[in-house]
Amino acid sequence: MDLNPSLNFAEGKQYNLSSPGPETVVFKSLFNIEHPSVVGCARFSSDGSLFATGGDRSAFIFDVDNFYLLKAKFAIHHENDMFVRALAFSHDASLLFTGSEDGMLRVWCVRRKIMLHTFVGHTGDITAVDASRQQKDPLVASGSSDGCVRLWDFDTGKCVTTITLREHARDQVGVTSLLLGPECAWVAMGDSYANFYVYTRSGEQVFMNQSHTKPVYGMSLSPTTSHLVCASLDTSLSLWDASRAPTTITPAGRLESHVGMVFSCLVSDDGQWLLSGSADQTICIHNMHTHALVSTISGIDNAVIAIQWRRGHLIALFSDNAAHIFQLEVSLPSL
């Protein structure tokens, strides 16, 4: 059995594109990267030159500029199935952080293709990982089903902050999503009881909201306006003005274009477009400024559990053994 991913051209598969607005949307299926197991998570590096996926006991890095050539494979030695549930690159893409079902946060050197460190502290699956986008802050955050978010200094290997969410009357709450704010001044997170929190870097809770009726599984931050988007299993997306976070966070809108659970969301690099993937087997594109629905991509055979978009390439995970690569370009109407 070939344990490395393989690239296959997506021939014959047809997707539907509905574009009610005046924007121009170009969408085309390019190819799939078939994996040896179900692909559970995916992430671009900040500059879009590398792309990483996580599966059963392994993580892979692909060179986007070299036609998604396999650049590195990281194997986690474990007797039984043990999935990588979340991953993130360091700001300069020299490191890859992976969080897995054994509660370990691992640090891998992309160039040398070796594991450098293992951060131990969680007692449950790691469900979310995010890393600093600035060189001056060598921090990576991990969230777990044990109800804790930990901030790690990846230069020293020390856990600098531990945030423990409250315990529910029935059982322990788990972390379902997280996002590090600009300059790591704050961290946003969702829990398994549909609460949405913001904490300071030092671990002080400054915001809590219960407007969603089911857990938030995806988060994204606009790089231009600092609007935070939360994707919820209650089929909606909520928008928040986090430009003055952690001091002030205010509601900025709600989108309800999906009819199924929303697993993922992503704001484009220019802050103009918002993408979301759902159990209703669609990807929706909204205008971040007007909140108008720009386009709906349908004809997908499975739930859309994760999406990434860089340099005109949309990568989507459909609860199967592949990362699906599409061309996607969205532009405003010409004046």
Describe it.
With 335 residues, the chain is mainly beta. The protein contains no helices and 30 strands. The protein has a five-stranded antiparallel sheet with strand order 1-3-30-29-28, with no helix packed on it. Strand 29 and strand 30 form a beta hairpin. It is globular. The model has no long low-confidence stretch (mean pLDDT 93).
Protein traits:
335 residues, mainly beta, five-stranded antiparallel beta sheet, 0% helix, 54% strand
Beta-strand level of the residues, as a percent range? Answer: over 45%
Query: Counting H and I runs of at least 4 residues, what is the number of helices?
Result: 0
Could you list the spans in which at least 5 consecutive residues all have pLDDT below 50? none
Element pattern in H and E: EEEEEEEEEEEEEEEEEEEEEEEEEEEEEE
Structural class: mainly beta
Percent of residues in helices comes to under 10%
Global outline: globular
For the biggest sheet, the summary is: 5 strands, antiparallel
Question: Overall mean pLDDT score?
Answer: 93
Summarize the structure.
The protein is mainly β.
Compile the SSE list and pairings.
Layout lengths: L5 E4 L6 E3 L5 E11 L6 E4 L5 E6 L2 E6 L5 E7 L8 E6 L5 E6 L4 E5 L4 E6 L6 E6 L7 E6 L3 E6 L4 E7 L10 E6 L5 E6 L4 E5 L4 E5 L6 E6 L5 E6 L4 E8 L3 E8 L6 E6 L5 E6 L4 E5 L5 E6 L7 E5 L2 E5 L4 E10 L4
Antiparallel strand pairs: 1-3, 2-27, 3-30, 4-5, 5-6, 6-7, 8-9, 9-10, 10-11, 12-13, 13-14, 14-15, 16-17, 17-18, 18-19, 20-21, 21-22, 22-23, 24-25, 25-26, 26-27, 28-29, 29-30
